[in-house]
Write a structure and sequence with these properties.
Length: 201
C-alpha cells in the first residue's frame, strides 16, 4: 500500500560516520542509537532524519562518539524532497509493522505458556513503541497517530490477556498477582509488586 504524505519534508539532518570494522562494538552501538533516534540509513555510512530542534539535539549526542558528523541539509529539488519524504515514511511504516508482528508473536508465546519469552519480547516491543512515539513528535504524517493508537490498544489487550492467562503468587501474602506492566506483577491483596526482570537477574 502506498504511503500517504501530505507535507513534504525538505529540511534534513544527515549523520555521516566513519567507524572502522576493528571497533565493532562502537559501530554497533552507534547504529543502534541512530536507529532509536529515528534515523534511517540513506546510503552506506549516511543516516538521515527530518530536521527539528529535538532531532538536532539527539543527533549532536550521537556525534559525541567522536566518529560522526552532523550536517543540516535542505533539498531544493521538489521531486527529490518528495521522494525522500516517502522513503522516510515507508521506513516509519515498517517500524509500525514490526511492532504489530511482535505483538502477534507475544500473544502466541502466552498461549503456548512461554511466559518468560513473552515478557522479554514485551519489554523490547514497549521500547520500540516509545521510540516510535517520540519520532511522531517531529514527523507526523496523517496515518501515524491513528496507527499508534491502534498499536497502543493492541498492547493494552496483550497485557490484559497475559494477566488473565498467567499469574504468580505473592511472596508476601501468598495471594494471586496480576500483570500490570512489562515484566511487572502486582498482588491483588497487599499491592506488593514483583519485577520479573529483577527476579530473573
Amino acid at each position: 500500500m502506498p504511503v500517504e504524505v501530505k507535507e513534504i519534508v525538505s529540511d534534513y539532518l544527515l549523520l555521516t560516520y566513519d567507524i572502522p570494522a576493528s571497533q565493532g562494538k562502537l559501530r554497533k552501538r552507534f547504529l543502534k542509537e541512530a536507529g532509536e533516534s529515528g534515523a534511517m540509513m540513506y546510503t552506506q555510512s549516511v543516516y538521515l532524519m527530518p530536521w527539528s530542534d529535538k532531532m538536532q539535539a539527539m543527533a549532536n549526542e550521537l556525534a559525541q562518539t567522536g566518529h560522526a558528523v552532523v550536517w543540516r541539509s535542505q533539498q531544493e529539488h521538489a521531486g527529490l524532497a518528495k521522494s525522500i519524504t516517502i522513503k522516510y515514511a515507508e521506513h516509519i511504516q515498517a517500524r509500525c509493522q514490526l511492532i504489530e508482528q511482535r505483538l502477534v508473536q507475544i500473544k502466541d508465546h502466552i498461549e503456548a505458556g512461554r511466559l518468560a519469552h513473552a515478557n522479554r519480547m514485551a519489554k523490547k516491543t514497549h521500547d520500540l513503541f516509545i521510540q516510535l512515539y517520540k519520532i511522531s513528535e517531529t514527523f507526523n504524517p496523517p496515518w501515524l497517530q491513528p496507527t499508534l493508537a491502534i498499536l497502543g490498544g493492541n498492547m493494552a489487550q496483550i497485557y490484559s490477556y497475559a494477566s488473565s492467562n498467567s499469574s504468580t503468587s505473592c511472596p508476601v501474602c501468598g495471594h494471586d498477582t496480576a500483570l500490570v506492566g512489562v515484566d511487572v506483577y502486582k498482588c491483588q491483596k497487599c499491592g506488593y509488586e514483583i519485577d520479573m526482570c529483577e527476579e530473573e537477574g
